[in-house]
Batch of 3 targets.
Target 1
Amino acid sequence: MLLAEERELIVEFGRKLLASQLTTGSGGNLSIFNRKENLVAIKPTGVDYHLMKPEDVVVLTPEGEKVDGALKPSSETRFHLALLKHRPDINAVVHTHQVYATTIACMNWELPAVHYLVGFSGNKVPLAKYATFGTQELSDNIIAAIGKYNACLMSNHGIVTVGQSIQSAFNTAEELELVSRLYYQTKCIGEPVILGDDEMKIICEKFKTYGQQ
Ligand SMILES: [Zn+2]
């Protein structure tokens, strides 16, 4: 099976999205780019993560041509491929409608540094302008907004995170859900204190060597 390892990871992390309550049913989508093989493994559209098997995961060229898999690829294939092409430093993309991050996105706000864990993205999480799901316009808006950040809120839609591995893109989605919740809750009781760019620069530097190396 082509990209066997990547296809297993898509199934594994899809189930992790459900277990972490970052998505429900068949919502959200994930992709992994094997740059050596020059092929992308991406979630098939509309398949429940509990029922998904590695062979259901679709394998595409970076241009979007199907190489393997009987099912249709994710409805958001366009922006997955655009991100993997645009950012040579990343190999994986995670997209969810996780509730707290999407709440902030529905306000059309960026997520500021209300907690240092926003450093999983950078000094903030930028916001992409709204466009209909699955469109080229949505893909263009995400590319315009994300820059060098590891995440981007999508107006009235959700969030997308990127990483060197599917594990890191998943971790970023999980941590940013906590930061989004903190931002929402602090806004409920007053005006949160936002960490300055100088402090976030230190945090982002520390994150490069954080955890097990
Ligand atoms: Zn979506």
Target 2
Amino acid sequence: MLAGNRRFVAGTPEHPNQDAARRAQLTPGQEPFAVILGCSDSRLAAEIIFDQGLGDLFVVRTAGHVLGAEVLGSVEYATSVLGCRLVVVLGHDSCGAVAAARAAVENGLPAAGFVRDVVERVTPSVLAARAAGLTEDSDIIDEHIRHTAQLLMDRSRVLSEQVETGEVAVVGLAYQLAEGSARMVTSHGVESMEGATR
Ligand SMILES: [Zn+2]
């Protein structure tokens, strides 16, 4: 995956696994090697920024990569049923959800409708970052990525057991919109991370 990101950054993507042969090969079933829980931001399209194709990534995206029961169920399905060995939390700079949570905390600006649900799920990360004296956008984004990875394992017993036994690794990546590159922020169960280098 990181090799794919390097190709994307360099402007030399191979667009692997995107032809009719791959489509036909996958008809009987899928075996994606990674599940990605990423922000829905339109600039963060997983298969494009990691230069992957059909059947490679199982992608779950919500604004601010916030997670509720549906997300947890989707991630557990990917690791337990499809056999994904790598879970990636993918955040990014200039994240609107994080900015909205900061505005809510710092200026008391509440969000309307169900956007409020998203903002409230990001708020604990913003508060934790503030408590640690972090004010830079990138530091708060990193905190939210770490928090999301930890929350995944805290809330999903299935996933935490898979990490403990070395079946699955959970990593957090921060994507830089301008550069197109992703850097590692956090990792759990690194011994089974060979998928990340694909
Ligand atoms: Zn975002």
Target 3
Amino acid sequence: MYSIRLWAVRHASFFESLYRIFEPVIVKMQPLWKSIGYQRAEMPVSVLEKISKGLLFDCKMCGQCILSSTGMSCPMNCPKSLRNGPCGGGTRQRPL
Ligand code: SF4
């Protein structure tokens, strides 16, 4: 599983391009989602999302995905689970 995650990190630009292509398509399908019913459509979509994003990005299903803004890196993988960093831990400087 971890090797798949590493592969996804190495190919993040590919996944970002894929997102840029499919996002407008999903938005244009709005009438279809509306006719099916959002709650009815949500169940199979969230199952697919959980499997695929869990495998590729170690997704925690936070409900506010910002993968497209973070270079396909999930901020919820931080041990502190901070979505809006920086937490300061990585930029801390040693005292002189
Ligand atoms: S930000 Fe991370 S945990 Fe939240 S939905 Fe996106 S991939 Fe999942």
